[in-house]
Amino acid sequence: MYDVTSLLTPSENAIGAVLADGWYAGDLWDHFYRGRYGFYPKLLAQLHIEYGDGSTETIVSDETWKLFKDGPIKEASIFDGEVFDERDNPKDWMMPGFKDDRWTNATVYSPSVTLNAQMNEAVKVVREVKPVNIFELTKFKYRPKTYIIDMGQNMAGWISLKLPYNPGRKITIRYAEMLNDDSTLYVENLRHAKSRDIYIPAREEQVFYEPKFTYHGFRYVEITGLSKAPGLSEVTGKVVASSAPVVSYLETSNKDLNQLWSNIFWTQLGNIPGVPTDCPQRDERSGWMGDAQVFAQTAMFNMDMEAFYKKWFRDIRDEQTADGRFPNYAPHITQSLRYYDAPGWADAGVIIPWKAYINYGDKKILRSNYEAMCKFIDRVYKMNPDLIRINEVGQNYGDWLNGNSIKAADYPKDGGAIPKDVFSTAYFAYSTALLAKASSILNKNKEYKHYDSLAKAIRQAFINNFISKDGIIKGNTQAGYGMALEFGLVPEALKAKVVSNMVQAVKDYDGRISTGIHTTERFMNQLSLNGHPEIAYSLLESHRFPSWIYSIDQGATTIWERWDGYVKGRGFQDPGMNSFNHYAIGAVGEWMYKHILGISPDENNPGYRHFYIEPKPGGTLTWAKGYYHSIVGRIGVSWKQEGNRYVYEIEVPTNSSATLTLPTDSNILEGGAPAAKASGVRLLEKKNGNTRFRLASGKYTFQYE
After folding, report:
1. Active-site hit among 222, 234, 284, 651
2. Mean pLDDT, rounded, of the chain
3. 582 and 688 assigned to the same domain
4. 552 and 427 share a domain?
5. Distance between CA 241 and CA 121 in Å, rounded?
6. I need a labelling partner for 250 at 20 to 30 A (CA). Which of 73, 219, 472, 537 fits?
7. Rounded CA gap, 134 and 125, in Å?
8. Same-domain status, 628 and 681
C-alpha cells in the first residue's frame, strides 16, 4: 500500500504498471521449473481517492485497462537477468493523454486461490555501494573493450549505470563473485544462470539504466559495449533485501573478527529476498531449511526477523504434506517428495518457530505452528518406532560439508563426518523435546506428557546405541560430541569424558575444525560452555586452512558455502556447488554474540524479560563492544583490558533484568564501590571461579583485578 496523494493532479492522471515473470511464472531452480504458481503475469490494483468534500472513489484494475505486450523488456529472469531495448519503449506511455489506440484490452482473471497480504517488510533496495576499482581487461586483444568493476563487497542486487554519453551500441553487463587468475570473471559456479543484463540504447543523449526484474549475487562486474572506461561515480551497486531492521553491532580489538562479523551480516543481507535463500548467484536460490535452521539465532541477533519468519513459517506450513512431512526447502518449487524429510532440514519446521518464540516472546508463533509441528514429529515416530531415526529420511544429507568434503592436500582425511544415524536421531530427540516444551507453554498437558515421555525415550535410545562407557560417541567426531552436548543427550555421569574426547578430536585434526554446517556453531558453543573457550578462540582466530579467517585472507567479504571454496595453490572447488555467499557456517555469529559479548536469551523468560550476560575474554582480544536491540530494548555490553584489570560496561533495558557472570571470584567494584552493595545489583553466588549478579534495568560499570 502506498500513499500517492502527492502524485495526483487536479486534472488528468494515469496509472501504469510493468509486469514480468518473477517467482510467479518464471524459471526456477536450474531452469527446470517454470510456471510453478502461474503462467502469465497478473496485476491486481486499487486506487482509493478521498476528495476534499468527503466523497470517495475507487479505481480498480479491470477489462478497461490497456495492455502492450511488445515493450522494451525482452527478457526478465531471476537467474539470467534482463534484456531492455530502449528503442521499443513508448515515449510518455505513463502520462495522461498517451494514445493507446493500438493497445489491447486486458483480460480479467478470477483468482482460484486465497490471496494473503505480505505481512513482513518489503523487498527493496536497502543500501548502495560504490565501486573501489575499475580497470580494462587487456589480455584479449581482439575482443571489444572490456572493463572489470570491483565493487569491493559481495552483495545481492544489481548495478545502476549512469553514463554522461550514449555509446550507441548494446551494453552487456555480466556479474560474478570472484575473478580467475587472469582477471576474467569466474562464472563456472553460476551453473546455468547467465547472470547478465543487456541494455540497448535508443537516441537518448545520456544512458541511465538499472534492471527492474532480476537480481544477481556478485562482487565483480564486467561491462562491454562502452567507448571508454566508466568512472567510479558512474556506477552504483544497489543492494536488495527484505528491509528488516538491523538491531545489533559488534566490534573487537581484532580486525579480522570485525571483518568476519561484517561477512556474516552481508551474507544474511544477500539471502533474505522474502525467503531465507541458500545463495543469491547460481540457478538455485531456494529457501533451504537446514541452512536457515542453523543460522536462525545469528539472523535474529543481526536483524529483527520476527515478521520475516512469521511469513516464512506460513510458506513451510503450506508445503507440509497431509501426513506430516516437512520439505527440505520452502517454498517447495519442485512439487516432488524427493526433497522432503531430510533430518536437520525438515526439523527446521519445529526448531526455528521455537527459537523465534524465545527471542520475541510471542506465543502466537507456537500456536500457529503447533499442529504442523505435532504432525511432523508424529510421522517421524510412526516411521521409526524403535526411536533410531533411519527410516523415511529423504536424501539424508547428514552434517553437510563437513571435513570429509574438503579437497586439500594438507588436510587430514580420516573421519570428520558424524554417522548419519547419530545425526538424525539427535535431531529427532531435540525436535521432540522442543515440541514438549511448546506443549507445556500452550497448556496442552496431555500432549506435553506424551512428547516429554517420547523425548526422554529417544534420548535414552541415543545413549544406549551411540555413547560408550568411556564417553566415545559413535564416529568419534568433533561434530558428534558438539551436537550431543548441545542437544542435552549426554548423561551427567559421562559428560566429563565426552568433553575430554571432544577436545582430543580437535587435537586429532591437527588443531583444526572438521565440522559441517549443522554442527560448527554447536561444537564451538560446547567448547566454551565446558571449560575450553581457549580452543574455540584458537579456531575462530586461526589463519590456517580451513577457517573463517582463511577465507578473509583470500579476500572474502561474505561467508563461503564450503570451507575450501577456494584454496591458494589449488584454486576453486567443484563449480557445481561452490557459492561464495552462503550463510550456514556463518552461524558462528551466534557464538560471537553469546561468548564475546556474552548475550544469551533465557528460554524461561522469552522476549528478553530476563536474559544472561557472560562475556568470555580470550584469544588475542583486549576489548570488545556491542549491543543487541531486543524486543524490550537495547542490551549493551563492552569490556576491555586495562593493564592488570578488566572493566565491563553493561546496559539492561527497562522492564527487564539480567544475570551477569564474570570470570573471577576476586573483589568486583561497581562505580568504585563493592558491586554487591550497589543499587540495582544483587550478588547471587561465587562458584567455580565465577561471580554471578542479578541486575535490574540500568547502566553499570564493573571492574576487577
Report:
1. 284
2. 94
3. no
4. yes
5. 9
6. 219
7. 23
8. yes
- Residues contacting residue 336 through CB under 8 Å, at least 6 positions apart: none
Does residue 696 share a domain with residue 566?
no
Residues 256, 401, single domain; the answer is yes
- CATH number for position 201: 2.60.120.260
Instruction: Answer yes or no: is 423 within a domain.
Output: yes
Which residues are registered as beta bridge partners of 662? 691
Catalytic, out of 82, 561, 614, 651:
561
Name residues whose C-beta falls within 8 Å of residue 91's C-beta, 6 or more positions apart in sequence.
Answer: none
Residue 514 lies inside a defined structural domain of this protein: yes
- Strand 171-176 and strand 196-200: the pairing is antiparallel
> 486 an active-site residue?
no
In a domain, 36, yes or no: no
Span 126-172, pLDDT tens digits: 999 999 999 999 876 657 899 999 999 999 999 999 999 999 999 99
Domain enclosing residue 679, as ranges: 599-704
Grid look-up 560439508 returns 401
Q: Which residue do the cell numbers 568419534 mark?
A: 476
Q: Is there a single domain that holds both residue 627 and residue 572?
A: no
Does 587 share its domain with 629?
no
Cα–Cα distance, 493 to 196 (Å, whole number): 59
Q: What angle do CA 352, 356, 357 make, to 5 degrees?
A: 120
Question: For the domain that residue 401 is a member of, what is the CATH number?
Answer: 1.50.10.10
pTM for this prediction: 0.96
How many structural domains comprise the chain? Answer: 3
Model pLDDT, residue 6: 92
d(CA 596, CA 587): 14
Q: Write b or e for each residue in 199-211: b if 16 or more Cβ atoms lie within 10 A of its Cβ, otherwise e.
A: bbbeeeeebebbb
Sheet containing 681-687: order of strands: 599-601, 610-613, 657-662, 690-695, 681-687
Is 651 one of the annotated active-site residues of the chain? Answer: no
Q: What distance in Å separates the CA atoms of residue 271 and residue 155, rounded to the nearest whole number?
A: 9
Q: How far apart are CA 637 and CA 650, in angstroms?
A: 5
pLDDT tens, residue by residue, 316-332: 999 999 999 999 999 98
- For β-strands 146-163 and 235-242, DSSP reports them as antiparallel
566-567 vs 571-572, strand pairing mode: antiparallel
Q: Is residue 634 part of a domain?
A: yes
Following DSSP, what letter does each residue of 132-174 receive, concatenated? Answer: SEEEE--S-TTSPPEEEEEEEEEEEEEEEEEESS--SS-EEEE
CB 254 within 8 A of CB 312: no
